[in-house]
């Protein structure tokens, strides 16, 4: 039965080694389409190349040329036939899925997260910038932004007025000087001054970067603008000192020394400044996953429910979906099309909103389910009822998908096969079990595996319905309906800021688990694949 | 019983299982069709009753979500009026339709091509590739957001035409997922088509492209329609990526725009949101109505005979 | 030959297409522009209108973008990727995280400007001695009561429960009190009861800042408070129930099924659409207990550190966003208390209810801590609350929550 890997043989005459007609594109229509598509590829490549050249991004350009060359090679060569079909999807997959995954995985070896996102230099700049305070007793000036010379290129200057005395000054990169020839408005704002160009809002906007850079040095600090019409004399209270690799507070004298292992500045008591930076931490995140007592205590329980949940969802959604598809698959059934359209409706509704509706229906005192059946069950108060509720919601959200796919599958199964079975006198159920169902499995087994993999990490299904509840009173970290991903989320993002590095490390472990399960079940599809 | 069944069109016979189990001594109509209505109605009730709350909320002028009031405190179309008059919903809706249809069509095509390769050719790395596609999908999406954002920040600087707040950019991003579940789904279907079919076509001189476009694709019309619909629904309802990608009011899809109405924790806009969700479901149902003729009855009995 | 010609053709097609594409690309406006990010809801829409006003007054293109999901995280991510907006609107308890990620700049507020604001508003936006945001609205929860059922405000929780019980016994209402708890608790809404029972979350340093090393949840006062809360719970008088959530309190109260509701002024716009008669008073304390202190949250405008047009952003935040007319416009959209004294005075003349919310806040309110350690408190404390309301032992439950919190405070 099983075919060996024999390359597909063609009976057409030998083709030129390379060229548009090389792989047997026989029809003129095919040729025209091919030219068109390759033309578009070339056009996109040329279009994409301009900005790369303009910005001097040579590595990007090399990649672009290589990818374009690869595409041309694949479609002009008579070989690599599978690649012709795979290349579009693969390119998208690599760029938009594989690369982000790799980037994220690489953060597992860092302390990347809130407070540790940038470089050390950025952290220093942030610490210094955040510590700028107005020099005590200094003036808050009324400001007019101007340039010395051409508004587009001249040096930025501040035309300043002391609001109390109405005395005018000009502030340049060299310092503050009195301004003699200033015209002032009633409130003292300088409206023009000889030799300086007062900037309008458009010109200010164009010079925004220069204005941010600019300050007027003074004896005690520097004058900075605050908006477009005010300037103040400020000074950073904290400054970085290269010699001790530390930050010192000018007023209190307190120092925070850089700790390169953790990416923070810490003082003698171990208190760190808020702004840290990203550093490599090696396998520390992985070690923490393994040694974390909370994780160790709850891991097995969560894993078991996680597998049960994913498996359960696949089985019940597929079971009900297939049943309804079989039942409705009869042309004599009046209103068949209407049934089908309305049954898929849950799939067309925004899932997030519907999960909230369901959560509300499970409300102990006011929920429809308890009222309808005269119950008083606290659904999210005990593990079995909470699990039941979650599975029911997933059944509702997912069975229509399976219904749709099964309906398509039933149509695609060659009718003559079942026909033949029935001519042979097989009873209908027997025919279904021996012929229809195995064929359905050939068609749907891959989907069921991928559905399992999806549900294994179905974050919203848990998070929006039970949030993991019920939680034992003495452990707010691991709920009875938590799956690994919701649990991860709580550990890595529930606390003080997001810890992406830690989350990535946990997800590597989750990935290994779900991948193992999927690979094993995938192996078993090998037989199914070769069924005909 | 089997004998009467064979007289009917072959397609009808596929689900005969339940007939046996339920086919009691009742009348023939019930045995053939009637019981199917009962199951159909039950499935319908299960599908629809949570949606009644959404309908109720959409008609309720008091904009809260609460299943304790299935009967709205007052019925009005005020929420629908607000939706169209006070929000940019018409633009969002249009964006959703354009992105949904294009994403559905393109990703259907891309994954059909890949599924053909995986089903019909035996090449090095085939099973590894199939597995790889699956494994990549398993990575938790919410962890990828930062990486995608940083990547598109570069893209937006270099090529604003496909950067943030563009339909094309979002479309490209969605195509990244085209080689995913749908490829697996379609590959399963391609596998059910006997290989003798393409073999004999090749003996007759057909190229691989002719086999694919001329022979295989028409045979799997039902599943193309199904994946097209699934692609449309998932693109229209996708929120996580779209919400970081589209920040301009005029670029938003309906899913992003509608969530903006209820995003505040203490929101009271649920009625307008519900109205929008219902309006957004209309094209999906319409598309399904349209595609049903391809899904059902897209095949004639003899088409597969080799 | 054949294929060479075709190749040439496709090259021509390529150039043509490339030409079209690059034409469509560049069209950068020269007008100055300002980009503002805000959350959704009524405040978002009002911000759009106000942004347009600033734009007209100054000849600037103001773009206000509504970020529906997780604005804080998205703002941090965008800043990191170099695509931050110029201004972002957000709650004051974001400040700690925004500062540690170097995403917002301190503001230099003159004493005059500061004096124009309610003291608590300025306190809320001050972090490590620096003012980071320009406050605009502030909120705190209060007690709503159905005046047709309960003419006079209850003087204590015990009084409230007695009145509610009597109404329930008479068949006039179904529930005693609509206070959101839900399956995983709601420490924000329970805080008046928690503090009145003797609990606190973080102590304060001499400077007035919250002290993460003084965790009140681990102290006996918290256990005592939770014992009182348990007595109101499902096993006690039934005033507190996990089935009452933020989603159903308004319908319970507005349909007369519950005579009392503890919530904030954000309910007012919807409440005004219903026929229920109601009034507002401060959340009462337990008889003989500590004052019942609601959290005060402040919404503020922040200047992004990595915005492209910082001077304009500063102008918008410090000089425009602090204007009284802006404050009253925001009130009109959100029914929240204006942070600016002058705007509050204007609003109070027409809307006595907002005045009552503001007075309750000034008298009893407590700034919601914005220190990063607060972020680890919500989840464990809420779950402890839900468990105790359901009947769990207060002592062991609160101890477990406290140790979970302490383990995460670094």
Quick overview:
Chain A contains 18 helices and 15 strands. Chain A is an alpha+beta fold.
Task: Tally the structural domains of chain C.
Answer: 2
Second CATH tier, the architecture of the largest domain in chain B: Orthogonal Bundle
Q: Name the average pLDDT of chain B.
A: 80
User: What is the end-to-end distance of chain B?
Assistant: 30 Å
Strand content of chain B: under 5%
The CATH topology name of the largest domain in chain B reads MetI-like fold
For CATH, the homologous superfamily of the largest domain in chain B is named as MetI-like
Structural class of chain C: alpha/beta
Rg of chain B (C-alpha, Å): 24 Å
CATH class of the largest domain in chain B: Mainly Alpha
Q: What is the CA-atom radius of gyration of chain C, in angstroms? A: 26 Å
What name goes with the CATH superfamily of the largest domain in chain C? Periplasmic binding protein-like II
Task: Detail the topology: elements first, then pairings.
The complex is a heterotrimer of chains A (532), B (306) and C (410).
Chain A: H1 28-54, H2 58-76, H3 81-106, H4 120-130, E1 132-134, E2 140-148, E3 155-161, E4 168-172, E5 175-178, E6 182-184, E7 190-193, E8 196-198, H5 201-206, H6 208-213, E9 216-217, E10 222-225, E11 230-236, E12 238-241, E13 246-249, E14 255-259, E15 264-266, H7 284-291, H8 293-328, H9 336-343, H10 345-348, H11 351-361, H12 368-372, H13 383-412, H14 415-423, H15 428-456, H16 459-463, H17 484-493, H18 500-529
Helix pairs in contact in A: 1-2, 7-18, 8-13, 8-15, 13-15, 14-15, 15-18, 17-18
Chain B: H1 2-7, H2 17-22, H3 28-59, H4 78-86, H5 89-120, H6 126-137, H7 141-158, H8 167-175, H9 181-192, H10 195-203, H11 208-219, H12 221-237, H13 240-245, H14 254-262, H15 270-295
Chain C: H1 2-25, E1 33-38, H2 41-58, E2 61-66, H3 71-80, E3 87-91, H4 95-100, H5 111-115, H6 119-124, E4 126-127, E5 130-131, E6 133-139, E7 142-146, H7 157-169, E8 177-178, H8 187-196, E9 202-204, E10 210-215, H9 220-231, H10 249-254, E11 260-263, H11 268-271, E12 278-281, E13 295-303, H12 310-320, H13 324-334, E14 337-338, H14 341-350, H15 352-364, E15 366-367, H16 378-389, H17 394-408
Parallel strand pairs in C: 1-2, 1-3, 8-11, 13-15
Antiparallel strand pairs in C: 3-13, 4-5, 6-13, 6-14, 7-11, 7-12, 9-10
Helix pairs in contact in C: 2-13, 8-9, 9-17, 13-14, 14-15, 16-17
GO cellular component, one term (chain B): plasma membrane
Domain ABC transmembrane type-1 (chain B): 93-291
Protein name (chain B): Carbohydrate ABC transporter membrane protein 2 (CUT1 family)
């Amino acid at each position: 039965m099983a075919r060996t890997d024999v390359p597909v043989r063609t009976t057409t005459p030998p083709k030129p080694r390379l060229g548009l007609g090389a792989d047997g594109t026989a029809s003129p229509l095919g040729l025209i389409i091919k030219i068109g598509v390759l033309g578009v590829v070339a056009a996109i490549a040329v279009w994409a190349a301009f900005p790369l050249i303009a910005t001097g991004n040579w590595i990007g350009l090399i990649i672009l040329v290589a990818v374009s060359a690869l595409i041309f090679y694949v479609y002009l060569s008579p070989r690599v036939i599978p690649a012709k079909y795979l290349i579009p999807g693969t390119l998208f997959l690599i760029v938009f899925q594989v690369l982000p995954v790799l980037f994220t995985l690489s953060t597992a070896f860092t302390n990347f997260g809130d407070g540790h996102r940038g470089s050390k230099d950025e952290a220093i700049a942030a610490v210094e910038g955040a510590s700028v305070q107005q020099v005590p007793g200094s003036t808050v000036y009324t400001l007019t932004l101007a340039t010395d010379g051409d508004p587009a290129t001249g040096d930025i200057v501040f035309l300043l007025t002391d609001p109390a005395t109405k005395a005018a000054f000009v502030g340049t990169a060299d310092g503050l000087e009195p301004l003699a020839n200033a015209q002032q408005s009633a409130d003292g704002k300088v409206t023009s001054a000889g030799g300086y160009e007062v900037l309008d809002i458009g010109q200010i906007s164009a010079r925004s970067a220069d204005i941010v850079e600019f300050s007027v040095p003074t004896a005690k600090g520097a004058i900075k603008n605050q908006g477009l019409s005010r300037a103040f004399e400020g000074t950073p209270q904290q400054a970085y000192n290269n010699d001790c690799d530390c930050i010192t507070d000018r007023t209190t004298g307190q120092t925070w020394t850089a700790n390169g292992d953790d990416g923070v500045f810490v003082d003698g008591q171990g208190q760190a400044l808020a702004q840290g930076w990203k550093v490599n931490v090696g396998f520390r995140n992985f070690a923490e996953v393994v040694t974390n007592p909370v994780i160790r205590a709850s891991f097995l329980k969560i894993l078991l429910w996680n597998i049960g949940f994913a498996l359960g969802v696949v089985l019940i959604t597929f079971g009900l979906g297939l049943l309804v598809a079989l039942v409705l698959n009869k042309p004599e059934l009046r209103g068949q099309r209407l049934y089908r359209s309305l049954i898929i409706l849950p799939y067309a509704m925004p899932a997030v909103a519907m999960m909230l509706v369901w959560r509300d229906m499970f409300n102990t005192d006011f929920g429809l389910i308890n009222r309808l059946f005269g119950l008083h069950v606290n659904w999210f108060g005990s593990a079995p009822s909470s699990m039941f509720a979650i599975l029911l919601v997933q059944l509702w959200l997912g069975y229509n998908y399976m219904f749709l796919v099964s309906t398509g599958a039933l149509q695609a199964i060659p009718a003559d096969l079942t026909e033949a079975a029935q001519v042979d006198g097989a009873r209908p159920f027997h025919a279904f079990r021996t012929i229809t169902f195995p064929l359905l499995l050939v068609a749907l087994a891959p989907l069921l595996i991928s559905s399992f993999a999806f549900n294994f990490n179905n974050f919203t299904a848990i998070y929006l319905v039970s949030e993991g509840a019920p939680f034992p009173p003495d452990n707010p970290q691991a709920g009875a309906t938590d799956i690994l991903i919701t649990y991860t989320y709580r550990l890595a993002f529930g606390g003080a800021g997001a810890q992406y590095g830690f989350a990535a490390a946990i997800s590597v472990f989750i990935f290994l688990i779900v991948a193992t399960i999927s690979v094993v079940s995938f192996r078993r599809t090998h037989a199914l694949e070769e069924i005909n | 019983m089997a004998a009467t069944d064979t007289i009917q069109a072959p397609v009808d016979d596929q689900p005969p299982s339940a007939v046996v189990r339920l086919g009691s001594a009742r009348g023939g109509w019930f045995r053939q069709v009637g019981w199917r209505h009962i199951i159909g109605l039950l499935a319908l009730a299960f599908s629809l009753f949570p949606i009644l709350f959404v309908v109720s909320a959409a008609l309720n002028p008091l904009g809260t979500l609460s299943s304790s009031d299935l009967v709205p405190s007052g019925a009005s179309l005020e929420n629908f009026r607000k939706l169209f008059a006070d929000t940019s919903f018409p633009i969002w809706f249009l964006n959703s339709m354009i992105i949904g249809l294009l994403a559905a069509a393109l990703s259907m095509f891309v994954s059909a091509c890949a599924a053909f390769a995986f089903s019909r050719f035996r090449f090095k790395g085939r099973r590894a590739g199939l597995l790889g596609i699956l494994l990549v999908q398993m990575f938790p999406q919410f962890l990828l957001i930062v990486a995608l954002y940083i990547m598109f920040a570069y893209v937006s600087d270099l090529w604003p035409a496909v950067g943030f707040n563009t339909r094309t950019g979002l479309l490209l991003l969605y195509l990244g997922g085209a080689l995913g579940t749908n490829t697996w789904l379609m590959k399963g279907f391609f596998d059910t088509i006997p290989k003798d079919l393409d073999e004999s076509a090749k003996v007759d001189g057909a190229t691989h492209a002719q086999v694919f476009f001329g022979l295989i694709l028409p045979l799997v019309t039902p599943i193309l329609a199904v994946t097209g619909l699934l692609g449309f629904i998932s693109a229209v309802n996708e929120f996580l990526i779209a919400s970081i990608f589209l920040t301009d009011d005029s670029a938003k899809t309906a899913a992003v725009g509608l969530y903006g109405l209820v995003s505040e924790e203490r929101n009271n806009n649920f009625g307008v949101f519900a109205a929008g969700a219902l309006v957004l479901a209309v094209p999906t149902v319409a598309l399904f109505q349209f595609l049903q003729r391809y899904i059902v009855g897209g095949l004639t009995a003899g088409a597969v005979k080799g | 030959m054949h294929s060479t010609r075709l190749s040439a053709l496709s090259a021509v097609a390529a150039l043509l297409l490339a030409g079209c594409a690059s034409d469509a690309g560049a069209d950068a406006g020269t007008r100055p522009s300002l980009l503002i990010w805000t959350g959704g809801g009524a405040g978002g829409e009002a911000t759009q209108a106000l942004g347009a006003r600033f734009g007209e007054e100054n000849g600037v293109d103001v773009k206000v973008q509504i970020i529906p999901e997780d604005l804080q995280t998205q703002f941090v991510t965008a800043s990191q990727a170099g695509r931050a907006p110029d201004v972002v609107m957000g709650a004051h308890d974001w400040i700690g995280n925004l500062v540690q990620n170097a995403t917002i700049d301190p503001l230099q507020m003159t004493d005059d400007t500061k004096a124009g604001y309610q003291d608590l508003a300025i306190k809320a936006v001050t972090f490590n001695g620096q003012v980071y945001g320009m406050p605009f609205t502030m909120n705190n929860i209060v007690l709503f009561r159905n005046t047709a059922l309960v003419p006079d405000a209850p003087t204590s929780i015990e009084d409230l429960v007695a009145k509610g019980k009597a109404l329930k016994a008479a068949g006039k209402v179904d529930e005693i009190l609509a206070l959101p708890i839900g399956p995983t608790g709601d420490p924000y809404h329970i805080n008046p009861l928690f503090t009145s029972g003797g609990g606190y979350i973080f102590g304060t340093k001499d400077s007035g800042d919250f002290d993460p090393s003084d965790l009140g949840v681990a102290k006996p006062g918290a256990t005592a408070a939770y014992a009182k809360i348990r007595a109101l719970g499902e096993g006690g008088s039934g005033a507190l129930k996990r089935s009452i959530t933020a989603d159903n309190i308004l319908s319970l109260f507005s349909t007369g099924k519950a005579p009392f509701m503890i919530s904030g002024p954000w309910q007012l716009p919807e409440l005004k659409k219903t026929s229920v008669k109601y009034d507002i008073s401060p959340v009462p304390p337990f008889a003989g207990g500590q004052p019942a202190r609601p959290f005060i949250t402040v919404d503020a405008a922040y200047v992004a550190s990595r915005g492209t047009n910082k001077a304009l952003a500063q102008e918008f935040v410090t000089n425009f966003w602090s204007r009284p007319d802006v404050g009253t416009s925001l009130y009109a959209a959100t029914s929240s208390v204006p942070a600016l004294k002058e705007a509050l005075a204007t609003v109070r003349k027409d809307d006595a209810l907002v005045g009552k919310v503001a007075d309750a806040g000034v008298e009893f309110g407590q700034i919601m801590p914005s220190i990063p350690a607060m972020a680890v408190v919500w989840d464990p404390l809420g779950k402890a609350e839900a468990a105790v309301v359901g009947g769990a032992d207060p002592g062991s439950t609160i101890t477990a929550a406290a140790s979970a919190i302490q383990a995460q405070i670094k």
